[in-house]
Amino acid sequence: MKKIFWLVVGIFAGVEIKKQLDKNPNAQALLADATARAKELGETATEAFLDRTAELTGTPRSSKASAAKKPAAKKPAAAKKPAAKKSPATKPATK
User: Fold this and answer.
1) What is the model's pTM?
2) Cα(36)–Cα(30) distance, integer angstroms
């Protein structure tokens, strides 16, 4: 019963906050700025993740800008090759 109460309170609070944001142009500008910054942060994190993944797998990323803008073409499942597994590094033999 408590969970339903807090769910309803959260919904009503969200509706009331939305009404207040619609009335206040300063709040709308702040919200738009925060949204833009969050998207920029997400894009930066995605680029860093893709760079690190490419570094670890040994596959170069040819053009970062075009890869982010163009969606990848879907290839048939049979055409995909499994990624080559690297063997674990071995320690040199000690004498």
Assistant:
1) 0.46
2) 10
- Comparing C-alpha atoms, which of 45, 47, 57 is closest to residue 85? 57
Residue with tokens 């994190």: 45
Whether 67 and 49 have beta carbons less than 8 Å apart is answered as no
62-94 burial, b if ≥16 CB within 10 A, otherwise e?
eeeeeeeeeeeeeeeeeeeeeeeeeeeeeeeee
Query: In 3D, which of 36, 74, 38, 66 has the Cα closest to residue 50?
Result: 66
Q: Residue 33: is its pLDDT beyond 70?
A: yes
